[in-house]
Amino acid sequence: METTGTAAVATGTSAAKRKPVFVKVEQLKPGTKGHTLTVKVVDANTVVPVTRKPRPANSLSRPSQPSRIVECLIGDETGCILFTARNDQVDLMKPGETVILRNSRIDMFKGTMRLGVDKWGLIEATEPASFTVKEDNNLSLVEYELINVGDQ
């Protein structure tokens, strides 16, 4: 059995990391992920948490805590979009702050786009940006409809 060029991958030698490609808000499309953006937080509104059924007492997992959810209007010089901040992310998403969202994704909620960062992504505070947010191009106000294309 001969080895090929995949031996370097199997031994765990590190590959060069890709440089992040920063995108603008107006470039976001439904169902996409892996976006890196620099945005300003314009507004933040707390969403009332939904009460869940209590977990059984014999559960081995940690007890459930009410989740903190805040919908933030974020944007850059090309447009704005709603961002759903969860739990620890809420502390970083204060109005007036500038943040870098790494590996963010577009979630669809009631036919509209929402930006989010899950456990594979990262939110970083950064120095204040010099741009002003273009609030008249709100991508979360555009309603999308899923159309199934079948055999015709």
UniProtKB/TrEMBL annotation:
Pfam families from the UniProt entry: OB_Ssb-like
InterPro entries: NA-bd_OB-fold, OB_Ssb-like
Ranges of residues in domain Single-stranded DNA binding protein Ssb-like OB fold: 28-124
Highest rank taxon of the organism: Eukaryota
Protein name: Single-stranded DNA binding protein Ssb-like OB fold domain-containing protein
